[in-house]
Design goal:
Elements: E1 4-9, H1 16-26, E2 31-37, H2 48-58, E3 65-70, H3 74-80, E4 85-90, H4 93-109, E5 114-119, H5 129-137, H6 148-157
Parallel strand pairs: 1-2, 1-4, 2-3, 4-5
Length: 165
């Protein structure tokens, strides 16, 4: 029996914090599906297709990963993937309160799929995609928060071609 987990997110852009959760989560499941989704409350810097390509590029060295876009209820997507668990990363108490509520709602929708929380690595806890984009828009150096390839894509998107940060 294959144990499948889904790690959902917008990944706009993919950060070192996301990659930490992906690498650690890939050891907890036989198959880890990275679900790249839309979020109506967010205005993404990158299209869904660009974010899928970004995640695929940065996780190509992990053998049990699949990257799939979705635009549906998370629990419907997880069920369609044959998942028995949802993987979520936690950075701070504020994350916990939101994620706890979401896990409760998801359990009401499908109690056969468990939510598993991983604490972010201490040195990666402050990283948030929203903050990475804000730092980049103001010309700050984002290389501590994302891979070099992602930093380049962000810089290109905001018109800083060739600049560091």
């Amino acid at each position: 029996m294959t144990r499948t987990a889904v790690y959902p997110g917008t990944f706009d852009p993919l950060t070192l914090g996301h990659l930490d959760i992906i690498r650690r989560g890939s050891r907890l499941a036989d198959r880890l599906v990275i679900g790249v989704t839309t979020n109506p409350s967010k205005t993404p810097m990158f299209s869904t297709e660009e974010r899928i390509a970004m995640v695929r590029q940065e996780t190509a060295d992990i053998g049990n990963i699949e990257v799939v876009g979705f635009d549906s209820l998370l629990m419907d997507f997880a069920e369609s993937q044959g998942a028995s668990m949802i993987l979520r990363g936690l950075r701070a108490v504020a994350d916990f309160e939101y994620e706890y509520q979401m896990a409760g709602m998801n359990q009401q929708l499908n109690d056969r799929i468990e939510t598993v929380f991983l604490m972010a690595d201490v040195c990666l806890q402050p990283i948030a995609s929203r903050l990475v984009k804000e730092i980049a828009r103001y010309g700050g150096d984002i290389h501590k928060f994302v891979t070099p390839a992602v930093a380049g894509q962000v810089a290109e998107r905001i018109g800083q071609k060739g600049q560091r940060g």
